[in-house]
Amino acid sequence: MARTLRHLLAPIIDNNPVTLQVLGLCSALAVTTSLLTALTMSAALTAVLVMSNIAISAIRHHIPNSIRLIVQITIISTLVIVIDQFLQAFAFEISQRLSIFVSLIVTNCLVMGRAEAFAMRNPVGPSILDGLGNGLGYSLILVIIGIIRELFGAGTLLGLVILPAVKDGGWYTPLNLMLMAPSAFFILGLLVWAIRSLRVEQAEPKEFPLTDEPERRHG
Amino acid sequence: MADLNPISLWRRLLALPNESRTKTIAVAFLVSLFSALLVSGAAVTLKPIQEANRAAERQARMDAMIAALPGLAEILKTSGADTLETRIIDLDTGLEAEGVDPASFDARAAASDPQTSIALLPDIDIAGIGRRGNLAQIHILKDGDDLSLVILPVSAAGYASTIHAYLALEGDLNTVAALTITEQRETPGLGARIEEAAWQALWPGKQIADANGEIRLAVVRGGAVSEYEVDGITGATRTGNAVTNMIGFWMGEHGYGPLLDNLRAGRL
User: Fold this and answer.
1) B85 Cβ partners below 8 Å, 6+ apart?
2) How far out from the chain centre does Cα A67 lie?
3) Does residue A92 sit within a domain?
């Protein structure tokens, strides 16, 4: 039981796809200007991840090795298109704000990575948990970044005014930097730093340590 | 006698080694088939809802454009009309089309149906739209007998999508009252910035054609220096060119040219 749960819980902090594996950054930066878009994107990615893990895990014994990547991408892109169509039908405004980033889930290394690394080798049950866990890990980071950016960039959360802005007669001057892409990098960097300070085992060994000795040339 | 029982055929297929050519092709085919069914199923069943969403969005953007036009609210109030007149125009003659109900007219469907549209030759089709509907739905506002505003739907092939917009002209039919982009899927952060209010605010007051009737309004690189130029967006040259071509095509003789002539002559 504990081992099964690990598939679900490990990717949330210990093996987080965004902060430890540093995957799926493009969308994590692009859609986190507000909490609502971050939540929608998280839900869309988690749904795609779980369903692609189910589909790929279910047929894993019959996927020829030579075409396994193209089969995975076909399944993933099918799911992404279907989800995108659903969003355009039932959440039109949000899908306009997410623009192409929903369709770009296809190229998110996170989905491909879980398909190739986990679903190809494990039964359906654990694959569902793994997909859900990784989806939630991604969502956690997006939601944290989304909260920080929307709160300090616009003074609102989910559109509700938390910090009344000066232009509406309040006292808070919104930080416009928060609505631009670099701020997501800063917040993500600080998050990675915080997590790796608390969980020292996540810090990577230095690959190229600095040395005092000048580099010697070997003839 | 070959065994044609589908269940045993299916079992034999599954039992083949994964690397065999038959199984590779069969798996590729089956995965593609299921994917195609799912995608087309979702696209077809959800299309009516998506179309309704897009139509609502277009209407909302036109309402917003009208609300933002200076002085329009007063004209509406003094002329007593509470809304714009909607007309269906035959683009070839530039006159009102008979017997078409504006309420049920679907411009998008008409523009793609070969029965109700014409294919444009490449040298005419500078906007890259391929086909143009025979009819178009326009909106007119009159102040007494004087024309005060004409709203024309326009479109062009952009860098990554078809751009749809409403172009509002003032009563002289040469001054832009507003341009509002209603639909586009250009590159976010670059071409998609044509949707920003700040860019669209550059348009009011620009002149479409010069005194000789030559259409000169264009999106330019660098800064706009005349009333025929609009600042382009850095990194979105092709989207800007598409907007230029959109104006060029729809204001020209194959677009609304005949209609504008008739409006100037007071025939409509």
Assistant:
1) B139, B140, B141, B142
2) 26
3) yes
Give per-residue pLDDT as tens, B103-118.
778 888 888 888 889 9
Identify whether A214 is part of a domain. no
Name every chain A residue with its beta carbon within 8 A of the beta carbon of B43: 81, 85
Tally of domains in chain A: 1
Q: What is the extent of the structural domain holding A77?
A: 2-202
Best B30, B50, B182, B185 member to test A by mutation, with max A CBs in 10 Å, is B50
Do A92 and B57 count as a contact with CB atoms less than 8 A apart?
yes
Amino acid B85: pLDDT: 81
Q: Which residues of chain B have a Cβ shorter than 8 Å from any chain A Cβ?
A: 14, 18-19, 23-24, 27-28, 31-32, 34-35, 38-39, 42-43, 46, 49-50, 53-54, 57, 185, 188, 192
**What would the pLDDT profile of B37-85 be if each residue is shown by its tens digit?**
999 999 999 999 998 998 888 888 878 877 777 666 666 666 656 567 8
**pLDDT tens track for A138-171:** 999 999 999 999 999 888 888 888 888 888 888 8
Beta strand ranges found along A40-165 (DSSP E): 156-157, 160-161
Question: How far apart are alpha carbons B64 and B166 in whole angstroms?
Answer: 11
C-alpha–C-alpha distance, residues B182 and A52, integer Å:
35
Residues 170-199 of A with CB under 8 A from B: none
In a domain, A169, yes or no: yes
Which residue ranges of chain A lie beneath pLDDT 50? 219
Contacts of A101 in chain B (CB under 8 A): 188
Considering only CB atoms, which chain B residues are within 8 Å of A100?
185, 188
- The reported pLDDT for the residue numbered A107 is 83
Lowest mean pLDDT among A97-111, B113-127, B210-224: A97-111
Q: How many whole angstroms separate alpha carbon A149 and alpha carbon A155?
A: 9
ipTM confidence:
0.79
- Asked whether residue A216 is domain-assigned, the answer is no
